[in-house]
Amino acid sequence: MNEDQLYAMRHSLAHITAQAVQHLWPDAKFGVGPVVENGFYYDIDLGETKISEGDFKRIEKEMRTIINKDYPFERSEKSVDEGIGWAEEARQPYKVELLNDLKRAGTTVAKDLDASEMGTIAEGDAAVDTVSFYTDGDFTDLCRGPHAESTGKVGAFKLMRVAGAYWRGKETNPQMQRLYGVAFATQEQLDQHLTMLEEAKKRDHRKLGKDLDLYTTSPLVGVGLPMFTPRGTILREKAAQLSNQLRKNRGFEMVWTPNITKKDLYETSGHWAKFGDELFLVKSQETSDEMALKPMNCPHHTQIYASQPRSYRDMPVRYLETTTDYRDEKTGELGGLNRVRSLTQDDSHVFCRPEQIGAEVNGLLDCARELYGTLDMKLRVRLSYRDDSDAYLGERELWDSAQAQLKEAVLASGLEYFEQDGEAAFYGPKIDFMATDAIGREHQLATVQLDFVQPERFGLTYTDEEGNAARPIMLHSATLGSLERFLSVYIEHTGGWFPFWIAPEQVRVLTINDQVMEYVSEITKVLDATVGMKPVKFNEVRYSIDSRNESLGKKIREATAWKIPVQLIVGPKDVEAREVSVRTQEGEQKVPLDNLSTYLKEL
Question: Per-residue pLDDT tens for 114-162?
């Protein structure tokens, strides 16, 4: 089944869901029912009646009755006025509102009739003359389509959850109930998806973050402002250390920039006009300067570049900075570490000559590939281009050139890729790295962005071979992206069983009795002296000793619950044999004490 067929199937199931709800609650009022990733939803107003998960079985039963009757989906057209008459007679006020909007202007709303977020009418849009409807059995709905051939050809589905949603996304509008479902071509595919969702629940980074004591939040600190515990801070530091090390290996130098800046910097860069409402504003009590908390680092790095004359011999100039930025994200969009208001980026910027673009992009591609290979995550590339809107800065010719050069670099790298319009940054096209986790979900993390715009806006120059002023090209890149978002993905990818090099606690020594404590002191001397080198250096093993007067079974269970990658079990027989019993996820083995350091270095 191709994507278009799957879309039509899921779209049809959204209508069947509304039809079943209307059979069970005849006074139901309907909003929109779009296709979303892996399924669909429908916005429903039942007045004081609330749908609960306890209602799902009877809704699904009614849906299957409709499916078994195999009604054909029949398309028809009406004038807008006829459509409004239909909606009024059917007592569907939300459809009346949509149709009146279509009558007034049309194209934007028409596009969004089945979109997850209802749009607003653009000035100058033309009104439409006719609208389409689809009927199956006793149910008719305003809809652009497409649909399956009949209700009997919609695959396998399951209702998943119900949530509140304001009509057309506006808090001043009525709140509706959004009924979500998932759908796939076959029952086998549906079962696989449901199994994946169950596994995802176990791996939820919010649950593991609490269970493994990695980060916390506080209402006194504020929503979207996570705080990392000692264990979680080790994760952050080791991930950042790996990213920094890989970039330093490719000629990047570390810089540092302040957390607040004058508004003028972002007005010059173009960020203020584009993202001004996402900035935290800071007021000085000493000056009249308008300040903001730093939301991104590229404008600052342009000023470091501009701080001294540059020659073609200096190029490329490469900066890296792992630093925290701040963005005033909407409260309703914040959740766990996925989206936060304080985000730490492993940010890099290259200033280069035009003929150096290919080599620099290739170096950044190699950097990302090496990092995600270390993390055991499969990568593919999304080439993110501009669309035909006016939301972008710079001449179209420059964009076309930049997009062609990025594609050429990706083709030369041999990476799997796909192209998508409308995903570019406002100043240039991007290479976005899509990392697949252990249960098959894809996440956009690393990025490489080509920028002709900011060097122009900031007047950046270098002296070329002929002694003339030339404009550098700017490359933006982030290997991990937002460190918080990366950790949300990586915690779930590993399920909390972190590789030895990044594990907050690498080793726990479990004693069988007090008679072995002298030998344990010899073991700790080995641990203290062990220096690891891959993939990032550690000067000593991070370990603890559990010498409590508890059973060995309890100690093992607790160490396993903490997901400690290496457990060293020490009993009288180990003392006598001058060895340790090593317990990992792979099993147990005996390791001579003299070989313990070498064993740990190889993990």
Answer: 433 333 333 344 467 889 999 999 999 999 889 999 999 999 999 999 9
Identify whether 347 is a catalytic site residue.
Answer: yes
The angle formed by the CA atoms of residues 533, 539 and 544, to the nearest 5 degrees, is: 115
- Collapsed DSSP state (helix, strand, coil) of residue 135: strand
Interacting residues of 135 by C-beta distance below 8 A, sequence separation 6+ = 73, 74, 76, 141
pLDDT in tens, 235-275: 999 999 999 999 999 999 999 999 999 999 999 998 888 78
Domains, the chain, ordered by start: 3-201 (3.30.980.10), 210-494 (3.30.930.10), 507-601 (3.40.50.800)
Query: Quick count: other Cβ atoms within 10 Å of Cβ 459?
Result: 11
| The two three-digit tokens of residue 389, written as one number | 């809107």
- Which of 29, 247, 349, 443 does the annotation list as catalytic? 349
Kind and range of the H or E run holding 165 = strand 156-166
Say how far apart CA 221 and CA 223 lie, in whole Å.
7
Q: Is residue 349 annotated as a catalytic residue, yes or no?
A: yes
CB-based contacts of 200: which residues, under 8 Å, 6+ apart?
A: 439, 441, 492
The Cα 366–Cα 352 span in angstroms is 18
| 210 in catalytic set | no
Is 476 an annotated catalytic residue?
A: yes
Catalytic residue among 22, 345, 403, 506: 345
Report residue 272 as tokens.
């203020």
Catalytic residue among 43, 112, 136, 347: 347
Residues 6+ apart with CB under 8 A from 442: 434, 435, 436
548 part of the active site: no
- The whole-angstrom separation of Cα 477 and Cα 247 is 10
